Amino acid sequence: MSDAMISLERGDWQTLADEASEIRRVVFIEEQQVPQDEEWDGRDEQCVHFLARLEGRAVGTARLLPDGHVGRVAVLSQARGLGLGLRLMEAAIHAARQAGHAEVLLDAQIHALEFYQRLGFTAFGEEFIDAGIPHRSMRLILN
């Protein structure tokens, strides 16, 4: 897949909500059966949002909270395996650095631990259940 076919946008909830919320609805609510009231936590307005496009179509999203947490990283099934999750995470990490955060935190679904470890994140704490899905907290120290 050429980089010309992939683009990344950074914006606020007002500008990216329609496309980002549709991706999250499909991935989290439909595929993973996350309850709607847990997915829509009321924090989106305070976040920096990222949207990945493949040939102009929105296929991935992530958000950075003001405290340096990254979350709601989601890529539609038909676009997985193309490096879009990596691009979204790199953009979120870069934004955290720009905002002056000393570290980036996230709560990773257990099946995604290796993905985040490849980006330099390390797991800490015990496994816990969030929205019915096993997770671990992870951190990346920024230099």
Automatic annotation (TrEMBL):
Q: Which domain of life is it from?
A: Bacteria
Q: Which UniProt keywords apply?
A: Acyltransferase, Transferase
Into which EC class is this enzyme placed?
A: transferase
EC numbers listed for it are 2.3.1.-
Query: Which molecular function GO terms apply here?
Result: acyltransferase activity
Instruction: Enumerate the spans annotated as N-acetyltransferase domain.
Output: 6-143
Listed Pfam families: Acetyltransf_10
**Which InterPro entries did the record assign?**
Acyl_CoA_acyltransferase, Bact_Acetyltransf, GNAT_dom
Record's protein name:
GNAT family N-acetyltransferase
What species is given as this protein's source?
Cobetia marina (Deleya marina)
